[in-house]
Amino acid sequence: MCAGMPSVAASTRMTLATVLCLLVHGCEDVNGGAVELSWKLRPASSSLEDKFVDCNPRMLGTGPVAGIRLDWEVRDQAGVVRTGADRWECSDNHGVTGFDLPEGVALLRVTPLCVSGEANRASYIAPAAEQRRVIAGDTISLGAVEIVVVVTACGETQPCICG
Questions:
Q1: Residue 128: inside a domain, yes or no?
Q2: pLDDT > 60? residue 6
Q3: DSSP string of the chain?
Q4: Is the pLDDT of residue 11 over 60?
């Protein structure tokens, strides 16, 4: 055998692996795009020692952040708007949708969720909605998202996150 030339057995294994991969993954219909993101909760008060807080901060008046929701509005080329959402447990710190987003221009929003539903808007600051183009078969990465949550000095005028 010549130096640098693959053996027939190695070539056969590569061909078999490629065929098996196509058989397993090649039959899925991918009609839309996906979104991937990670998140961290950052305290609104700089008096805390920790730069980030847990999903269950365990501070007086503060309840656990149960989940993180990603909402989308996608406008296709014809101007039709389609909406959808996906959610993950807050403690996952990372989420990926299926290829569920239709093709078009998407507006993507991240929202913290309490056990009772969406958190009071006065108790957190989420990043502004991002506009991205959705392409079938592609994944949009929102990267690491920081959600600023009120976990101290809250009461009647300033609610705690999930309080």
A1: yes
A2: no
A3: --TTPPPHHHHHHHHHHHHHHHHHHTT----SBEEEEEEEEEES-TTSS-SSB-SS---TT-----EEEEEEEEE-TTS-EEEEEEEEEGGG-EEE--S-BPSEEEEEEEEEEETTEEPPGGGEEPPPPEEEEE-TT-EEEEEEEEEEE--SS-SSSSPPTT-
A4: no
Residue 86 forms beta bridges with which residues? 70
CATH number for position 98? 2.60.40
**110: in domain:** yes
33-79 pLDDT, tens digit per residue, is 999 999 999 998 766 677 888 999 888 888 999 999 999 999 988 99
> How many domains does the structure of the chain reveal?
1
User: Which range marks the domain in which residue 138 is found?
Assistant: 34-149
Whether 129 is covered by a domain: the verdict is yes
**Is residue 144 one of the residues assigned to a domain?**
yes
